[in-house]
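Same chain as my last thread, 89 residues:
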Amino acid sequence: MVNNCANSGCGKPLLYLREGRIFIFDTSDGPSEPGAKRLRRLDHYWLCGACAATMMIVQNSQGTATVLPKPPVVRRAQQIVPIASMLAF
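reply #2:
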């Protein structure tokens, strides 16, 4: 059960799902014996709206979830060149 924001510096209580973001990770272990049924386990994490705007949760290869800052978004500026200048030599 998710009760608080996953950001340890925040800890805002989860009251409503209308803000923020839920992250779900599959942390199931493979079957220990051939032919054994794999038990599925999903872990849920929540970031409040303020934290979700600048942070994300990622899962590493060992299955541990970590809160990280979002990478910066690189946007290309749209360059508008008049067609007449393209034809002029």
